[in-house]
Specification:
Number of helices of chain B: 1
Strand content of chain B: under 5%
Largest interface: A-B, 27 and 14 residues
Order of helices and strands of chain B: H
Oligomer: heterodimer
Strand content of chain A: under 5%
Number of strands of chain B: 0
Distance between the termini of chain A: 16 Å
Order of helices and strands of chain A: HHHHHH
Shape of chain A: elongated
Radius of gyration of chain B: 8 Å
Largest sheet of chain B: none
Radius of gyration of chain A: 17 Å
Number of strands of chain A: 0
Helix content of chain B: 55-70%
Largest sheet of chain A: none
Distance between the termini of chain B: 25 Å
Structural class of chain A: mainly alpha
Shape of chain B: elongated
Chain lengths: 155, 15
């Protein structure tokens, strides 16, 4: 669950938050931050997979989790820009159904959550290697979703 | 400010 502190620290890490006029603009900032985190997590996972030696390595759990998280980060990388465009178009005057805007944030969250959930089952070295990144991506996706919900005034 | 207000509302949000 989001903390107020995480929300503020994350949003304020990007200067655009200070100039934001509404929650739509804050949601866009959060989505960009989620995108950055996913790209960085993906690069790290790819590099870890390469150094694990790929198929046939001793730590198969690590290897599979890396591979699944890479799929999820890839999904985030594809869905986020498309979702950003949807959120960017939002206007309350369009009287569009809230779900038309909420769905994409949910899809980003689903992908981020899948990696988070898979890694949460692991322990030891694997968890140490992947956990912080997985948590970071999931928290930022969650923040983006929370702000899109505020944008459309979804209770 | 907007960030503080939005974060107060976002607090506790779970996916």
């Amino acid at each position: 669950a989001l903390t107020k502190e995480f929300c503020e620290t994350t949003l304020r890490s990007d200067n655009r938050s200070a100039a934001a006029n509404d929650t739509r603009e804050l949601a866009l900032v959060a989505m960009d931050l989620a995108s950055t985190a996913a790209a960085s997590a993906s690069a790290k996972a790819r590099s870890a997979l390469r150094s694990s030696g790929g198929r046939g390595s001793k730590d198969r759990d690590t290897e599979y989790s890396l591979r699944y998280c890479l799929m999820d980060y890839g999904t985030v990388a594809v869905v986020l820009p498309a979702c950003r465009a949807v959120v960017e178009e939002y206007s309350p005057r369009d009287f569009q159904a809230p779900f038309d805007y909420l769905e994409c944030a949910g899809r980003v969250m689903d992908a981020a959550g899948d990696c988070w959930q898979r890694v949460s089952y692991e322990d030891g070295a694997l968890k140490r290697a992947l956990w912080n990144d997985a948590v970071d991506v999931a928290n930022r996706a969650n923040l983006g979703q929370a702000l899109v919900e505020q944008m459309v005034d979804f209770p | 400010d907007l960030v503080a207000t939005a974060c107060e509302k976002a607090k506790g949000h779970e996916a």
